[in-house]
Design brief:
Elements lengths: L7 E3 H8 L3 H9 L12 E3 L2 E5 H12 L19 H12 L17 H39 L1
Antiparallel strand pairs: 1-3, 2-3
Helix pairs in contact: 3-4
Length: about 150
């Protein structure tokens, strides 16, 4: 093998990078109807499956350039045994995959000062309620201990 250990990516990360489920990665590897898809084979280490980064890059590059081994240029996509999710995945690959640093931000919108104050007030109310419950519990526990001591 020419690739080093640093070139290997675990299957869950491969699924996240390709924006597919782990089950799809499994199907591409094990299901006979997807063998023609040409997905890179896995390397099993310590009970986990890994893929070569260089093999994945080549596979993605081939798909992005339209070199899909199982798709003839004049055949419509519905002639193949792919699920709708897998067709969507192929379309994403052909458009090009965004890297993590290029991916659009998924941050929340900026909250207004009123929303922030409301959120903080709710959190404070919850903390106060939990403290009151804890004080009541300790008080009850102390009363029970006193009662037991008096009874002896």
């Amino acid at each position: 093998m020419t690739e080093g250990i640093r070139d290997l990516i675990p299957d869950p990360d491969v699924a996240r990078l390709l924006q597919v489920s782990k089950m799809t990665i499994w199907r591409w590897t094990h299901d006979e109807k997807f063998k023609k898809f040409g997905f890179p084979s896995c390397i099993r280490l310590g009970g986990r499956n890994y893929r070569s980064q260089s093999a994945l890059d080549a596979w993605v590059r081939d798909r992005a350039m339209g070199k899909m081994a199982d798709v003839a240029p004049d055949e419509p996509p519905d002639k193949h045994d792919f699920t709708p999710d897998e067709h969507a995945h192929v379309r994403r690959i052909r458009r090009g995959i965004q890297r993590d640093d290029e991916a659009p931000s998924r941050t929340r919108r900026a909250e207004t000062p009123e929303e922030r104050n409301h959120r903080l007030a709710k959190a404070q109310e919850k903390r106060d309620r939990e403290r009151a419950e804890l004080r009541a519990y300790h008080k009850l526990q102390a009363e029970a201990e006193t009662y037991l001591e008096e009874g002896e």
